[in-house]
Amino acid sequence: MTGRYVLPDNSLPKMPCFVCKKPLSYFPIYNTEAGPSCGRHGTPKKYRNCSFRCEFYEELAKNVLFPCCYKSNGCLEILLPKNVAKHELQCKFQTFTCPFECPDEWKGFAGEILEHTESKHPGDVLTDCCFEVDFINNYNKIKLMPYLDGVYLINYRCSGNEKILLCTVTKLGYEPVDDNMNYKIIFEDSGKQFNHTVYSDLNDTVCINITAVNATLKNPTAVLASIEVFQMEPIKDSDIKNANSGLLRHFECIICMDYMLASIYLCATGHSICDRCKDNVKECPTCKSEILTKRNYNLEGVVSDFEFPCKYEKCSFVGKGAVMKEHQEKCNFIETDCPFKELYGCEMKLLNMDLSGHIYKEHNEHWYDGGSIISCPFSFAEGFTIYEDVFYLKYFSKLFKLNFSFQNSSFRFSIKLIDGYLEESSKYCFVVDVLGTTNCNNRLWYSKNMIDGKQDTKIDLAFIDDLIGEEVNFRMFVQEK
């Protein structure tokens, strides 16, 4: 059996990459006359002709557990080299440099970038997601755009001579980008009479033909550009709603008129009823006969192979019976109440797809970035209670609800997947990081796999009382296993 070895801390300074000064845990490793370089950035060009790959080192190091390169920021993970690249890309403790010319060479966590830019570079923030475009001169500009529940870096470069504009929209932070995330750039003349729209995948660069845009906008004197980020639903080529509209009526429950996508029951005469309505009525509304426990297995078999359109307007998803049933429980186009309706009296009606953006903009005190520290006042006095607080965070385009409370000498932390499918939650684990109030190196790091879309964690006060003073400091976040 192959052993695994933890690299001692005191050996790390002896083997850093000469370029980034980080551990040689990111393969491939190359040796140069200036020293070893890691795979985080590749070998500098001037050393490429006189470098060689350290295959012997890689063979020795592949079973060594290295600390995360963000250990000094608080990360406690230790990793095999094969897992380093994925972890560092998503590590909650990674820091980002200021994307603008910053005299103090600012660095901070993902959740701090917008605040820093608004304070130090207010002219570079696109608060309304709109900016004026110069199609004549050559330039390279960077802007920061807060949009819904994220912060995006906009880089647009114009070559007036070649008549092209290159634009890249990148999401900042540690959250991996869903393959279905896209952005569009809408060009308009100053009077907003004409528009020209281009689309691209998020993080990709789109090349825009300036001549084509000018022609569409009728050669305007000024051009305005606005950017929107959105998630595409999977779309199938067939137009099921039109092709099978006659057949689909046979799959409708005679009571609720929804498609019968799960168990189908019969009345004594033979009419079919869905499993939800069976428990709510005593007799068939069509013939007044008794509702039986007998199932319509023949129709259920057809449902399992038949493709249905989603019942929610504007949704283009198409799927077979069981798949559609699951989709409709979490469809982006379901209308829902604001989760803070009872707490704050917010009467907004929202589509599922707009929920996270609404919380981020209207209830930002409950929006949480997993890298930031939550501080709550605390007292060891008998009977002291911290009432439940609620936070929302987004990870890999999935919305999670976090709860925290202190009662009966115990802290309770819980998480629930809000807008994803339950089986997806098995990919994630819930992390609670309790920090010492006087020394952040003293801490409790607790990680537990999510089950059925949720996880509850209880930590007794006696277990962490030495970490708590007049307040309790902690982080909560989601990460992939």
UniProtKB/TrEMBL annotation:
The keyword Transmembrane helix belongs to this UniProt entry's keyword annotation: no
What catalytic activity is recorded? S-ubiquitinyl-[E2 ubiquitin-conjugating enzyme]-L-cysteine + [acceptor protein]-L-lysine = [E2 ubiquitin-conjugating enzyme]-L-cysteine + N(6)-ubiquitinyl-[acceptor protein]-L-lysine
The record's InterPro entries line, in alphabetical order, gives: SINA-like_animal, Sina-like_RING, Znf_RING, Znf_RING/FYVE/PHD, Znf_SIAH
The yes or no answer to whether the keyword Zinc is present is yes
Q: What is its EC number?
A: 2.3.2.27
Keyword list (alphabetical) reads: Metal-binding, Transferase, Ubl conjugation pathway, Zinc, Zinc-finger
Report the superkingdom from the record. Answer: Eukaryota
Domain RING-type as annotated: residue spans: 253-288
Pathway(s) it belongs to: Protein modification; protein ubiquitination
SIAH-type domain span: 63-122
A molecular-function term among this protein's GO annotations: ubiquitin conjugating enzyme binding
Which cellular component terms (GO) are annotated to the entry?
cytoplasm
Checking Gene3D superfamilies in the record gives: Zinc/RING finger domain, C3HC4 (zinc finger)
Top enzyme category: transferase
Name its GO BP terms in alphabetical order. proteasome-mediated ubiquitin-dependent protein catabolic process
Matches recorded under PANTHER family: E3 UBIQUITIN-PROTEIN LIGASE SIAH2, E3 UBIQUITIN-PROTEIN LIGASE SINA-RELATED
* Entry's family note: Belongs to the SINA (Seven in absentia) family.
* Protein name (record): RING-type E3 ubiquitin transferase
